[in-house]
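Reminder: ligand-aware prediction takes two inputs, not one.
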Amino acid sequence: MGFKEKVAEIFTSIETELSMDDALQLIEIPPNTDMGDYAVPCFKFAKKYRSSPAAIANEMVKKIGAVDEFEKIESAGPYVNFFVNKSQFAKKILQQAFEEKENYGSTNVGEGKTVIVEFSSPNIAKPFHIGHIRSTLIGNAIYNIYKYMGYNTVAINHLGDYGTQFGMLISAYKKWATPEIIEAIEKDPIPELLKLYVRYNKEIETHPEYQEEARYWFKQLEKGNEEAHELWAWFREVSLKEFNRVYDMFGIKFDSLAGESFYSDKMPAIIDELEDKCLLKDSEGAKIVELSEYGLTDALIQKSDGSTLYVTRDVAAAKYRKDTYDFYKNIYVVGAQQKLHFDQWRKIIDLMGYDWAYDCVHVMFGTVSLEGGAIATRKGRVVFLEDVLNKAIEKTTEIINERNPNLEDREKVARQVGIGAVIFQELFNNRIKDYVFSWDKTLSFEGETGPYVQYTYARTCSLLRKADIEINDDVDYSVFTGNEEFNVVRKLQGFKEAVLNAHDKYEPFMVTRYIVGLAQEFNRFYHECPIITDDERVKKARLLLTLTVNTVLKEGMKLLGMEAPEKM
Ligand code: ARG
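Here is what comes back for the chain with arginine:
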């Protein structure tokens, strides 16, 4: 039994009509530790005892008496405050952590349930730019967190590899691809394809017939015309090669790359089903689902030329996923700009009669911009994500050369720290918040940054390397009654809760904040208390604490997608 449960048990034994769940609900964590580790407010009992909450709290303390697990139980105003017995508490936490190792913090809440996390999902033949960092990293962290919570997880990259824009690209290619341009595409595909696309969009203004030609080529693609298909497949292949370089740098792997094109042959069945369920209305030759009575704009499902749309493919994708994976949750990590799209889409699935529509979750986020200017993509002025990562590595190399020129594996560490810094920065705030990407903030070794956490982790590694004794959980737990030590223990206790909260709210930043808080707490302890001391008893206990912090920091970083270098 945990200490919180013990508090609840004490209350249920005095207030017998209180259930264990009610009692647990009642318990608060005081804002500062002078007020104890747990507090129970007594307002709830005022009516029953016809007395003031403060007087009741006083009475409660007398009734409770002494309890082994707590060094002090006292009232303060309307609260009963519980101060845990520090060495008992430390023993419980550290023994459990020692036993569970990297699983300390994991749960089995997801056992037997499949969760799909769809993330990243860039459009092929378009730049993989800094804006994509958000879905890519938030999604990957959510995927890791769900896996850690015991779910069977499926990572899907729903590539934007279909749609009328490919009609434009094919048409542009057929018009303008000279041997030089083809060679340029082979060398540096995305910028060159983007150039074609941008030119096409521009020339449409003076050549309205290009619109029709683009439509024609998309239609050909849908019909399986060989030439159209071959070009499209080539665009897709060269794009994926580019994207994969970034995924490799982040260490991200997908279980499925079923993107929009994957659903092209599943479209007729969806149109039929919508038709059968009387959900489609004709609108000037096109087909729509009317949604105005639900406070949404109508959704265009099929154009008058018979081609389908983004939302149609998403409806097909959701149904396919339900049939294939029988998901418990189907999570879409996509920017807030697409809220209307997902609201319409969910309503359509609901109207089709599928109650799992509400197991589909749109996890949205705000925008990222770079210091000194937002990200323009329409005009072709973009910042590639790969360039940002390379710059982070470069800058980190400079810092390492300055601070620690003799470091072994310098290149590898620079990569781990540079990329880790970017990941940490991305996952530092509530995801809905817009943020400005700042180099100084990202790469600083001080303050709440990735390098700071990694540095702290490397410090624990160095201490553990220096230890000349076996580290185990057979230690004198009375060592942990000092404030600095106990604060670290208290923080360690919160790991599981932090990950669970991040899981409940789809908010990786809760893990980020947790690990940086733990690093800070550990550093306070490190600066106040010698760890490798002559007193074997103290050394052994402090090393166990160091080992636990080492494991939790590493695991926490892993959940975010960061690597943890052992030397920095
Ligand atoms: N490819 C889209 C874009 O770049 C994002 C796809 C989001 N996922 C989805 N199932 N609609 O905007």
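The chain has a mean pLDDT of 95. The pocket of arginine is lined by residues 118, 121-123, 158, 160, 314, 332, 334 (CB under 6 Å). We will return to this case in the review session.
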